[in-house]
Each structure stands twice: as C-alpha cells, then as structure tokens.
Amino acid sequence: MLASNLLRISVVLFLVGLGLGIGMGVAEDFTLAPAHAHLNLLGFVALFLAGLYYHSFPAAATGPLARIQAWLSVIGAVIFPIGIAAIRIGGQTYQPVVVVGSLVVLAGAALFAFIVFRNGA
Ligand code: HEM
C-alpha cells in the first residue's frame, strides 16, 4: 500500500514536472528550470525509487517510520520546488519556503537511509 501510493504520487508529480518543462520550452522562458529539475528528481525519481524499494522489501514498509518517511519525502518534494519557483519569480522573500522544504527533504532522506540500513539491502 505504502509502495503503491509512493509510485502513484511519483508518476503524478512526473506529469506535472514534464508539463512544466514543456511549458518552459513553449514559452521560451527558462526561469523555472531549477524548479522543474527538482520536481522531476525529488518528486519523480526519488519517490519512485523509494516506492520500488518498499515494494522489494515489504518488511521495511511496515510500521510508522516508513509512513513518516514517505510523508516527509512527498511534502518536501512538493514544497522545495515551489519555494525555488517562488524565489525565481518573487525574489528572496520566499527563501524561508526553500529552507523549510530542503530541511523536510533532508529529514525524509535521513529517515530513508536509516530504514535502508536497518532492513538491509
Ligand atoms: C518532457 C520532458 C522534459 C522537458 C520538455 C524538459 C524541458 C526542460 C527545459 C526547457 C529546461 C531548461 C533548459 C535551459 O535552461 O536551457 C530543462 C532543464 C532541466 N531539466 Fe528538464 N525537461 C524534461 C524532462 C526532464 C526530466 C525527466 C528530468 C529529470 C529527471 C529533467 C531534469 C532537468 C534538469 C536537471 C535541468 C537543468 C536545470 C537547471 O539548469 O537549473 N528534465 N528541462
């Protein structure tokens, strides 16, 4: 369930990230390139890989830690690119969004590393 949800969320974010990329190309305005890149990498690649990991190691997906890890990773993968986009459009006022987003991403990644080490590879 956790694995499937991560896989589903990742492909939805993938479509958004690709849409943003195509939108930039059509508009010939690449202001949001870093937001597009991080949405694709954190929102699609990282979440999809986590989904595949939990699918391959079902024992790792049980318990509250994995659920917290998944929530942190999803929230971070959305907030961080939004923060980057906000800075690119609106300026440094929006820096706190990026700071919070990056820390949430880091917390999710640290918890994922802990889960991977604890459950073996
Ligand atoms: C339909 C597919 C895609 C389109 C149309 C697209 C479009 C673009 C465009 C227009 C740029 C800006 C290029 C520039 O600044 O000159 C860009 C940058 C980038 N894209 Fe994509 N992209 C696509 C898929 C992906 C995917 C799947 C990933 C990663 C998983 C990705 C990662 C990146 C990265 C890392 C950059 C560089 C960002 C930067 O320089 O700040 N893109 N893409």
Percentage of β-strand residues:
under 5%
String of helices and strands: HHHH
Structure summary, number of beta strands = 0
- Give the averaged pLDDT, no decimals: 97
Tell me, what's the shape? globular
Number of domains: 1
The oligomeric state of the chains shown is single chain
Q: List the total number of helices.
A: 4
- Fraction of residues in H or I helices: over 70%
Low-confidence stretches: none
Which cofactors or ions or other ligands sit in this model?
A: protoporphyrin IX containing FE
Q: Helix- and strand-based class?
A: mainly alpha
Distance between the termini: 20 Å
Q: How would you sum up the major sheet? A: none
| Cα radius of gyration in angstroms | 15 Å
InterPro entries: Cyt_c_oxase-like_su1_sf
Keywords: Membrane, Transmembrane, Transmembrane helix
Give the SSE layout.
Blueprint: H1 2-27, H2 33-56, H3 64-90, H4 95-119
Helix pairs in contact: 1-2, 1-3, 2-3, 3-4
This protein binds protoporphyrin IX containing FE.
